[in-house]
Amino acid sequence: MKKIKILIITIVAIAFSIIYLYMFYPQNYGYNNLMKTPTTIRFKQDTLDLGTLLYNSEKQVVFQFTNTGSVPLLISNIRSSCDCTSIKWEKRPVNPGETGEIKVIMKPNSLGMFLKTIKVYCNTYEQVINLILRGNVTED
After folding, report:
1. Which of 124, 134, 132 is nearest to 37 (CA)?
2. What's the pTM value of the predicted model, to 2 decimals?
3. DSSP-derived secondary structure letter, 92
4. Is the pLDDT of residue 74 over 90?
5. Beta strands of the chain (E only): which ranges?
6. In the beta sheet, which residues pair with residue 128?
7. pLDDT at residue 34 above 60?
C-alpha cells in the first residue's frame, strides 16, 4: 500500500511539473520559435566580383551583414552552388542592430568565367538570401 501511495505522488508531481513547464516556459525564445519569427537583414554587398583568379589558387572574401530587424537573426545553414567554395560563419544568433560576416574561401577548379550562388537560410521574410560570386579563372 505504501508503494502505491509513493507511485501516485510521483506521477502527480511529474504531471504538475510538465503542466508548469508547458504553461510558463518562455516559448518565444526557443530556437524553433525564433526561426518562425521573421527579421530583416541588410548585406553591405550581395554580389562580389573577384576579378581574375589563377587556377587552383585560393581567394577569401567576406560578406558583411547587419540584422536590421527587431528579433535575433538565426542563420540555420549556408549552401554553395559549387564544391570549390568553403563557407564559415558564427553559428550564434545575431541580435538586432548587430553585424556579422560570412567568410567564403574559393579555390577555383575550372577555367573561364564563373558565377557562383551562395544560399543563406535564415529567419527572414524571404527565408533564403542569394549571394553571388563572380569572376574569371585563368592559368597564368
Report:
1. 124
2. 0.73
3. S
4. yes
5. 41-43, 47-54, 59-67, 75-80, 85-89, 99-106, 112-122, 128-138
6. 121
7. no
